[in-house]
Amino acid sequence: MNTPAATPAAPSSVTADPQDRANAAPDAVEPGTSTPSQLPDPVSERDRRFMRLAQLAAEDARAAGEVPVGAVLVRGDEVIATGFNHPIGAHDPSAHAEMAALRAGALTLENYRLPGCELYVTLEPCLMCAGAIMHARIARVVYGAHDPKTGACGSVVDAFANAQLNHHTSVVGGVLESECGDALRSFFAERRRASRAARRAAAGETSSADDDSASEGDTPSQST
Ligand SMILES: [Zn+2]
């Protein structure tokens, strides 16, 4: 159901179909076509530090066989919660990294609203997550790679730019973008390799089975 896109023409584009993070496949995009909704400040070392933690959370998703997207919820300099994408394992279409971090953070703080918190996520949030982020009154979202297929921070739609919807959240995109995108690209590349290998193995088994049955069919008459 996923069509690996990866055209060489778009080397730096993000490849995931994140939101179907369960089975997403990469789709190429022209590099630089999507820009962060807002860039109030240059990316700080602080932003990169928390994004690296989100990248670690993404590796937890990869280890679980899920599309590697990770998120970290931060208040001040304190990490309140982390989350990683796991819709397949959870049988839950809403189990994106952001949702996992929001749920865990809200439980930790015992508050369904999280004002003053920042959410770092390795991939541009989708519309569902953008909605949850707004409901939680998150102060700031920082994301890594742009998502040309379902990104709701400017790549496909910009939910946060609608003043009727969003009164609380500022957004910065492209923090450690290439690293975050590379994690997704390597995941899908590996999956395509595995898929090709499986097809070759299946084809090989079939033909060798055919060969074997032919041999078996021939052998008795030759041996007798
Ligand atoms: Zn999402």
From TrEMBL:
The keyword Metal-binding applies. Binds 1 zinc ion per subunit. Keywords: Hydrolase, Metal-binding, tRNA processing, Zinc. Its cofactor is Zn(2+). Residues 45-156 form the CMP/dCMP-type deaminase domain. It catalyses: adenosine(34) in tRNA + H2O + H(+) = inosine(34) in tRNA + NH4(+). It is an enzyme of class 3 (hydrolase). InterPro entries: APOBEC/CMP_deaminase_Zn-bd, CMP_dCMP_dom, Cytidine_deaminase-like, tRNA_aden_deaminase. Residues 1-16 have a biased composition (Low complexity). The active site is at E98. CDD domains: nucleoside_deaminase. Pfam families: dCMP_cyt_deam_1. Residues 1-44, 198-224 are annotated as: Disordered. Zn(2+) binds at H96, C126, C129. Its EC number is 3.5.4.33. One of its GO terms (molecular function) is tRNA-specific adenosine-34 deaminase activity. Homodimer. Catalyzes the deamination of adenosine to inosine at the wobble position 34 of tRNA(Arg2). HAMAP family: tRNA_aden_deaminase. Belongs to the cytidine and deoxycytidylate deaminase family. ADAT2 subfamily. This is tRNA-specific adenosine deaminase. It comes from Paraburkholderia denitrificans. The gene is tadA.
